[in-house]
UniProtKB/TrEMBL annotation:
<feature type="compositionally biased region" description="Basic residues">
    <location>
        <begin position="1"/>
        <end position="12"/>
    </location>
</feature>
<feature type="domain" description="BTB">
    <location>
        <begin position="74"/>
        <end position="148"/>
    </location>
</feature>
<feature type="region of interest" description="Disordered">
    <location>
        <begin position="1"/>
        <end position="63"/>
    </location>
</feature>
<feature type="compositionally biased region" description="Low complexity">
    <location>
        <begin position="13"/>
        <end position="27"/>
    </location>
</feature>
<dbReference type="Pfam" id="PF00651">
    <property type="entry name" value="BTB"/>
</dbReference>
<dbReference type="InterPro" id="IPR000210">
    <property type="entry name" value="BTB/POZ_dom"/>
</dbReference>
<protein>
    <recommendedName>
        <fullName>BTB domain-containing protein</fullName>
    </recommendedName>
</protein>
<dbReference type="InterPro" id="IPR011333">
    <property type="entry name" value="SKP1/BTB/POZ_sf"/>
</dbReference>
Amino acid sequence: MPQTSRSHRRKSTTSTSTAGTGASSASSRKRKRTASTTPAGPPPNSSKRIKTETSAPTEPKLAKSVGKVSDSIYDTIIDFKIGESLTSFGIHRGLLWRTSSFFKEKLSSSETTEGGITARSIVMKNEDPDVFRRFTTWLYSKTIILESENYKTLPWEVIIQTYSFAERTRIPGLQNTCVDTVIKKRRDGGLFPAQGPVNTLWRYPGKVFRLRRLLLDLFATECNLSNALANNGSYHPRFLQGLVLTLYEMKGKRTMYNLVDFWQKRVNYYVDDNENPIPLD
């Protein structure tokens, strides 16, 4: 009997424990279901964070400047009005800024600005439209010769006037191109300049001494002076004086020139252009 009672008590204890475990599991499942069906609330202090973001939106970041306008060659078009006829020419501001210190100053001065913005029109009534056309042609193609022309027939007046314009407006690259043009003109069989163009060059108030030096050397080495002086009337006195001195110096140095030498030594007649150096071949 006692054994039977102990066995019965163990079973009863086991049953009670099992029932307790089942009740605990049921209670746990009920709590889980209750938790899963309860809507999730916002995290602590989220209302303050949302309110702050809404009331103070983030400003978009501005793009940083990539440089001055002059950094771009082909940017704003500047409208030039040239001569009494006010002939119109359009040139990119960046090209002017990069090529000529004269135009760089003109575009930067207060006289050419309106409300802090650079003016887009420049009037130059004292300049020749044809010479200015040579300048614009050179800016974009590095030559002063138009499509209908060639080196041999290009008038000397055009070369001399373009050189003088380049000196006044401080465009050394254009001056050096005029030097190249003179040498190529002679190489292609072009005649020497007559009295008119030579006297014009020697009357210019500017220096133009390098172009004068080139013409003196060409006359002294390649020209039949007796025919030139006889057929072209009176040259400017200072030109004749310079020619005599050149001949005397060449005789003393026993210098002999030819066309190839002039082309190879053309840098001797160049003006300094450190910002835009011209490669020599």
